[in-house]
Design brief:
By secondary structure, the chain is mainly α. The chain is about 65% helix and about 0% strand. It has six helices and no strands. The chain has helices at about 5-10, 15-35, 45-70, 90-105, 110-140, 145-150. Helix 4 (about 90-105) runs antiparallel to helix 5 (about 110-140).
Length: about 160
Amino acid sequence: MTRFTAAYNRIFGSGPAIALAGAGALLIGRGLARLTPGLSLPVPFAMRVGILVLALGLGAGLIAWSVRTLTPERRGRALVTGGPFRFVRHPLYAAFLSILAPALILVLAHPAYLATLVLAHAGAHLVIGHEEALMEEWFPDSYPAYRRRTGRFVPRLAG
């Protein structure tokens, strides 16, 4: 790994790749929705807005908590296991998916966006695998135990 790549990963992690995967999945969902216009869901506008506001609020809160906990100075230099990282290993990606899911399904109101959500979720797992390999490399003594006790996107309910 070059010094540039290592510095880039410390600063940005997998974020840009996740955003590109999400955008690609959204384009696929949009294409499927245009091919099947008669399948739109009858979701009342007020329900769409309410669910979107709730999802955005919860997601933004989780993002703010994560960014406050994992400052740029600590990225790649210390294994952060406090704040939201106490519950999940990737709270920023969990927030992204928690905003994306209701936005796609209810706001855009077409079942084709389920395909987008599935693709975005799968893409997140693929990209994050690379990030977790880096974490294993950077923190070989502590990351494996941390990974066993915390979920990737959803908190583990049992030990």
